[in-house]
Amino acid sequence: MTLKFIHTSDWQIGKVFRFVDNATMGLLQEARLRAITRLGELAEAHGATHILVAGDVYHMEALSTRSLNQPLERMRGFPGTQWHLLPGNHDPHRPNGLWDQLLRKGLPNNVRVHITPEPVMLQDEAAVLLPAPLFHRRTLADLTAYMDDVNLPESLIRVGLAHGSVKGFGSDGKDVPNYITPDRPTRAHLTYLALGDWHGQKQINDRCWYSGTPEIDAFDVIDGGQALLVDIEGPHAVPTVKPIATGYYRWITLLEQVNSRADIDYLAEKLRDIADELDRVLIHLSVEGALSLENRQYFEEQIVDGVSAAFCFMRVDDRRLFPQPTAEDLDRIDRGGFVRTAADELKRLAEESESDGGIAAAALQRLYIEHRKLQAEQR
Q: What percent of the chain has pLDDT over 90?
C-alpha cells in the first residue's frame, strides 16, 4: 500500500505585481500559469497520481472569467493526474463565490475542489484525504481540529490538507488568524499534513510541511519556486519528502559597495555574469558608498540604464550611495555665478547638516546631472 503525490500551494493566479510595468507583470503572471504545467509534467515523470494544492489557488475572489478558467485548462491537459484544490485565505469558499461559480459551470473530470471538511477516499480506497477549507479570509478557529474525531480504519494512509500558520512559525501564540496546531498529525493520526500559506518551503516536523509557492513572487521569499514530492509506503511509515524545482524566474537580492568608476565596472560585470539567462532574473540591488558627481552619472548610465535592461526587472536602492563632489565636478557645473553658489551651498549642507544633508546631496546630484544634460544638448 503506497501513495505518491505532489504537494503544492499558493499559486495565487491573478496576482498583481504593482512594482513593475504592465509588460513585466504579464510575464510574471504567465509564469504562475506555466508552473501549473510544470507540476503536471513532474507528476507524470515521477509517477505521482495526485497533486494536492494547499490553498490560495487564486490571488483574489474577484477575477475575470478568463483568469478563473486559465488554471483549470492547464490542469485539464494532464488527465492522468488528479488535482485537489483547497480554498485558502485569498480565495475562501463563500456562498455564490468563485468556487460555487466554477462548480456550477463544471470542472474538468480530473479536478476536484474540496469545499467541505470531510474525508475523501484516494488511491483505490488505500488512502484518505482530510481537507480543511477556509470559509473566511481570517478565522481564529483551528479548522483542522475535526480531523481528530474522524473515525477511519487504521489501515488507511491519512493525509491532511490545510492552509494557515502553525505556532512558533511566524507567530508566538494561538491568537493568530487561521491557526493550525503543529502536532495535528499526532492528534489525528495523520501520515502527512500538507500545508499552504507560507510562500517559502519549510519542514515543521517529519509529517508536516509547507510546500512553498511554485513561482517566487517577492524578494523576501526563502526557498520558494518549489514543490514537494511525497512518497508514503504505509499508514504508519514516515513519508519520504523530496523538494522539486518548479520556478521559472529567480529573485536575487544583492548588497554592493561602490566608491569608484572601477567599482561600477566590476559591478556591471558581476551582474552580467550572475546567471546564464538574465531575462529570467529579477534583482533587488542595494548599493552603498560615495561617488563623485561624474561617477554617479556613470553609475546611472552603466547600471541603472545599462545592465538593468538585461534582466526581467531590476530595482536599485541607492539611498546609501552618497555624492562626493570634487572641485572638478563643481567646475563642470559652473566656475562662478549663482549656479555655482547654489552648488557650493548644497555641497556644504550635504557634508555638514544632519537633518538636511540627504536632501541637499540629492539636490546637488540632480543639479549636476541636469547641467551635464544641458551641456550635451548645446553641443
A: 75
**Measuring CA to CA, which residue among 123, 127, 126 is closest to residue 160?**
127
Distance CA 214, CA 121 (A): 26
Helical spans, DSSP H, in the chain: 22-46, 65-76, 98-105, 184-187, 261-272, 293-299, 327-333, 337-352, 357-378
pLDDT digits (tens, 9 = 90+) for 122-172: 977 789 999 999 999 999 889 999 999 999 998 999 999 999 999 655 445
What is the tens place of the pLDDT at every residue in 9-58? 999 999 999 999 999 999 999 999 999 999 999 999 999 999 999 999 99
Contacts 24+ apart (CB under 8 A), 232-236: 232/2, 232/3, 232/4, 232/127, 232/157, 232/159, 232/191, 232/192, 233/1, 233/2, 234/1, 234/2, 234/157, 235/1, 235/154, 235/155, 235/156, 235/157, 235/158, 235/191, 236/191
How many other CB atoms are found less than 10 A from the CB of residue 226? 19
| Largest CA-CA distance found in the chain, in angstroms, rounded | 91
**Global pTM?**
0.85
Strands 202-205 and 179-180: unpaired
Task: Tell me the three cell numbers of residue 189.
Answer: 493520526
Q: Give me the percent of the chain exceeding a pLDDT of 70.
A: 93
**Residue appearing with cell numbers 481540529:** 145
Sign of the C-alpha dihedral, residues 55, 226, 212, 206?
Answer: positive
